[in-house]
Amino acid sequence: LWSPQAPAARGGMGLSVTGRAVMYEEANRSIFGPVVFNCAAPDDGNIDVLARLATPAQQDEWLQPIIDGKVRSAFVMTEPAPGGGSDPGMIGTRAERQGDVWRVHGRKWFITGAAEAAHFILIARTDPNPEEKRRHLTAFLFHRDQPGWEIVRRIGIMGPEEHGGHCELAFEGLEIPDGARLLNVGDGLKVTQIRLGTARLTHCMRWLGLAKRAMSVAQDYVDAREGFGVRLAQRESVRLMLGKVAHDIQVGRLLTMQAAWKLDQGDFARKEVSMAKLHVADTLHTAADTAIQLCGAKGYSRDTVLEWIYRYARQARLVDGASEVHRMVLADAYARERDDFWSWGA
Q1: What pLDDT tens digit does each residue of the chain (346 aa) get?
Q2: Which H or E run includes 168?
Q3: Which of 12, 151, 177, 332 counts the most CB atoms within 10 A of its CB?
Q4: What is the CA radius of gyration of the chain?
């Protein structure tokens, strides 16, 4: 059950995206599951994109150690204003070529896992033309021991900390050999689209597992707890709350599986991924909030995992594209496709 997203030839399970949907959901019934099986973010998305896009030599150097669990990794894209966040056209960190070396200057922040990572995928601007919005970025690989960059700070966050935290990075002349460039110059946006499409969906898979765990904790509590001579589970108001969450989780599973199927067909599944992320992010928050409400003070305490899930859930509507961005994706798709928006895609 190790590295389900990695090729079998490199020691992983080689699961399809639909196969991962089943496993990741079950793995994240435990908050430790994804780490135990080496399918936690950001390593999960980095393994996937390197397996698909890196050269064999790059895979030997940069991918295999992540699959083997010898190193952690990070994806370095988001920047403080006026740099790029949800809009990659605004990315300002620049990589300038000098012979066979690229020198990087700029700043990044909220880079998940950076404090513990050894291998990094960096997205930087290589076309100085501010009007260029499609071929302006390039992806690079670098190691934490290379000079010319530093972690400025580890940013405290509302939710529970993951390995390596969320960090702000400064680049002041980091030198990257051209051999550590991923794909061609100008393909950085392509790299991010390929990585983030699947990574957004694997978030949904894991979030569904957490939502199911929250509901299970709540059901166990209301089955046993009595008030005014009646078990909570027998009260209509409680049953309506649990029924809604059960319904929302199943809708999320279906949306996630449809998007996974389309990715397996070679489709970018952009609108399907956006629909899944929108719904599942909201569902995770609803499941955690409902479970805490039903468990009362115990749910609010640290006697259960619910408060951890609740704090974690708030970031779901922000990471890998805020919910508002995904709604714009869907609005654009409908304006373009009209009734074909709902085609089955078979």
Answers
A1: 999 999 999 999 999 999 999 999 999 999 999 999 999 999 999 999 999 999 999 999 999 999 999 999 999 999 999 999 989 989 999 999 999 999 999 999 999 999 999 999 999 999 998 888 889 999 999 999 999 999 999 999 999 987 899 999 999 999 999 999 999 999 999 999 999 999 999 999 999 999 999 999 999 999 999 999 999 999 999 999 999 999 999 999 999 999 999 999 999 999 999 999 999 999 999 999 999 999 999 999 999 999 999 999 999 999 999 999 999 999 999 999 999 999 987 6
A2: strand 166-177
A3: 12
A4: 21
For 303, which DSSP code? S
Q: Which residue has the tokens 């399970």?
A: 13
- 57: tokens are 């030599």
Report the distance separating Cα 92 and Cα 86, nearest Å.
13
Residue 274, token pair as written in the block? 């956006």
| Alpha helices (runs of H) in the chain, residue ranges in sequence order | 17-27, 33-36, 43-53, 56-58, 64-67, 188-224, 236-264, 270-295, 297-300, 306-313, 323-337
Residue 82: Cβ-neighbour burial (10 angstroms; 0-12, 13-18, 19+): exposed
* DSSP letter assigned to residue 314: G
Say what the pTM is. Answer: 0.96
| Residue at 1 is within a domain | no
User: DSSP letter string over 244-281?
Assistant: HHHHHHHHHHHHHHHHHHHHHTT---HHHHHHHHHHHH
What is the total count of domains within the chain?
Answer: 3
Residue 325 lies in a domain: yes
Phi then psi for residue 176, to 5 deg, are -120, 120
What does the CA dihedral 257, 261, 262, 265 come to, rounded to 10 degrees? 170
User: Which DSSP letter does residue 301 get?
Assistant: S
Kindly state whether residues 169 and 245 are assigned to the same domain. no
* Closest to 307 (Cα-Cα) out of 233, 238, 210, 223: 210
- Sign of the Cα pseudo-torsion (75, 80, 82, 87, in order): positive
Residue 148 lies in a domain: yes
